[in-house]
Amino acid sequence: MNTATFYIVQPDSPQCNKDGFESYILFLLKHFSNQGVKLYVNAENKDESLYWDERLWQQEPEYFLSHNLIGEGPKNGTSIEIGYSQLRPSWNRQLVINLAKDNTNFAGTFAQVIDFVPYDEKAKQTARERYKIYRKAGYQMQTIDIDHQN
């Protein structure tokens, strides 16, 4: 069964600021990549996908995660592929980490979805809309508070 997990960012958590949130994303990428999962990072737009590509390249060598942008890299891709909503990810991706704030256009494409509920009220409402889309697509829904250090 497909699952969608929404991580709820609490206003007083380390993840409510940009650096803390990015560190948490890197933690999740490493966690799932170490399990052999083929990941897709769905960025907000092309510029953000390029940002995440560069962010992963800047990791210390011992924390490096093999990755590529959509359309680059080896034939079957690396463990992490980065793109954005207007692009189609490779066929072999099992899990998406959604960083886009728009409504999803890939519900049903991935066996597992990781999404976020920010503390900002406007962004929270958009996350609720994505939640409804996943639920309608038949995903088993779960939520996790991330109000702690990773």
Automatic annotation (TrEMBL):
- Pfam families assigned: DNA_pol3_chi
InterPro entries associated with the record: DNA_pol3_chi, PolIII_chi_sf
Q: Which domain of life is it from?
A: Bacteria
Q: Tell me what this protein is called.
A: DNA polymerase III subunit chi
Q: Look up and give the organism this protein is from.
A: Vibrio algarum
